[in-house]
Structure formats: C-alpha cells, structure tokens
C-alpha cells in the first residue's frame, strides 16, 4: 500500500468513527496511526516517542499533541470516546491495516 492510499484509509477510518477533520488532533492522530503502521509498532510504551516525533514535526510540545489527540477522541462517537489514546491508536492500526 502506498503512502497516499494509507493516508486515505486512515482519514476514512477517523471520519467513520466520528473524528472531525477541522480539529488539529485529527492530523496528529492520523500521523500517529501512520507512524505506527509504517514502523509496525503496537507497543504502548512507543506512544510517548510518537507524540514527541509529531510534536517536533509541528514545532510544539509533545503534551499538546497528546492533549489534542485526547480531545478529538473524546469528541468522537460513543464506540471510541471512552478509550485511552493508546488503545484507540492500536485499534485504528489494526482496522486500517
């Protein structure tokens, strides 16, 4: 699967679960899922590393990235809104792959 196709599948999945693209957390979450798929990672301890990589990409602190991701997950549909970000990302990786 090429990068463009992967991004489309991720965006389609995020929209399907009710995550709105106008929130900055949508892009951060999309990047996190993409990184996890590309590096074939599902280990919970890797999330802080991913948040740091995304933060450096967008020139911000990793805690802001995490906060934005938590926010968009809480604003999503009932199926996923109670999940922790790490569990959501892992589930999304499995769904998109």
Molecular structure report:
The protein has 97 residues and is mainly α. Helix content is 67%, strand content 0%. Helix 2 packs across helix 3 and helix 3 packs across helix 4. The termini are close together.
Describe this protein with a few key phrases.
globular; 97 residues
A few lines on this structure:
With 97 residues, this protein is mainly α.
Task: Break the fold down into its secondary structure elements and pairings.
Elements: H1 3-16, H2 24-38, H3 47-57, H4 62-74, H5 85-96
Helix pairs in contact: 1-2, 2-3, 2-4, 2-5, 3-4
Strand segment count: 0
Instruction: Characterize the largest beta sheet: strand count, sense, and whether it forms a barrel.
Output: none
Give the C-alpha Rg.
12 Å
Mean pLDDT: 87
User: CA-to-CA gap between the ends?
Assistant: 9 Å
Secondary structure class reads mainly alpha
- Helices and strands, in order, run as HHHHH
- Summed up, the helix count is 5
> Which percent range fits the helix content?
55-70%
Form type: globular
Strand content: under 5%
Low-confidence stretches are none
